[in-house]
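Q: Here's a chain of 540 amino acids. Please give me its 3D structure as tokens.
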Amino acid sequence: MPSINNDQLAAFEQATANQSLRGILRGLEKESLRITPQGELAQTDHPLGLGSALKHPHITTDYSESLLEFITEPFTDISALLQQLDDIHRFTYQELARSGERLWPASMPSHLPPDAQIPVARYGTSNSGTMKTIYRIGLGHRYGRSMQTIAGVHYNFSLPDDFWRALQTQEGDTQDLQAFKTQRYFALIRNFRRYFWLLVYLFGAAPAVSNNFVEGRKHRLQPLGDDSQHLPFATSLRMGDLGYQSDAQQSLFVCYNNLSSYLSTLCGAITRPHPAYEAIGVKDEQGNYQQLNTSLLQIENEFYSSIRPKRTTQSGETALQALRLRGVEYIEVRCVDLNPYEPLGVSAEQLRVIDAFLLTCLLSDSPQTSLEEYAEWLENQKRIVYFGRDPELRLLRNGEEVSFKDWAEEILHNSRACAKLLDQANGGEDYITAVNRQFAKLSNPALTPSARVLADMQSQGKSFFEHSLALAEQHRQFFASAPLACATADAFELMSIKSLNEQHQLEQSPQIPFSEYLANYYQQYHNCSCATPEKQNAPC
């Protein structure tokens, strides 16, 4: 790993600069499938008591109508962040109790019906709602609807302006603050892409799937009992070719050397037709939309990266247009599996480790990327997904194979230095303790969540389905044991009612024809590779 910058570490040990770390903002987006008490995929509509999936600020759906997504506000305090996620869960379970449904605790799905019976998420009749639904219909045609039932945790992370000003001063940089932030966020992202395999090893919790998920598909998995497939050393099948991967996207090289190169490569994938998707067509013979376009990507979200640069969008604005006009505001970490043993799907310890890891990525040298290194990233991801707990595992580093364990220890040592900074800012030793606990996983892979899942399945004589269903019932009982305080429950009920009213008002307001709405939306992609805050001067 490129050396962590000791001068910057020393600078952020100073009181004023160190206190800026207290202003780190964190948000969570957590997905979970709704299932019946028997563990089958829920075929019901999004529960009315949860409000409008289009307009609710905290409860929506993702790809499938059955895939709930919980969205927190940004918080500077991890405990407050997880408390809001807990409140969202308790309100949701309160509503699901009416039907007896519960939430599936694993990233890989429960038993699934035939592909055509997996419900696509629906968002009403407004132009924005129609576009969201058609995008998901397109995903079904391109990847199959079973892909739309895979769940994960997304972690949003941003550093305050006080931090960026201190870093800019330490580096002697004189450019505009937002331009500096954008440049350094991309440096963080490049290092994250180099080293995120470590997070997949430490927190991957998807080493097995049910038989029917891979039925009729090519795969490299091995049987485990009568109803499960696995690999002995697998960590996160969600992050491999059973997840949101495709042969088409394998040809897509997205450059993270600066904002301009990132916009250019993604916009090109959105605006250039792709033969396989041209064969599907935008509409069927009856005039029904089958997808939003025939390009390699319908929108930027279809590129399933482990991390994304982000900027809050305005109404009708694409994510790439927001980045082009206003630069990077925060990053979104997307490689975290649901932890099936945690009722919230994620723990405070995990988030503290990720914080220290992200700060390490930022304060370490981050050279620009070549096509050859990009290929190494992809190969290392595959190796860690399928063979991550193999004691003999080796990864690629600058064209050479190196010991996974040695490299991982190097990264954790650097993360421990950043954990010390975070503890200094926040008080206590929570960050150091969290990072230190990860070293044991390198020496003893049995301590990883993926190993625990397989060990429990085997010792309990349960299939992946049976093991996950038992955990789902445990989580249901956990949330049922302590209902929401009345005031909090009332506030969520008001949010649900308000969101339904907002969707109704939107659908009653005058709207331009959808084809015109879509054309206006896509015009932004034709502009997004034009003038940007940085010039494209990278090798890619």
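Q: Can you summarize the key feature?
A: The radius of gyration is 23 Å.
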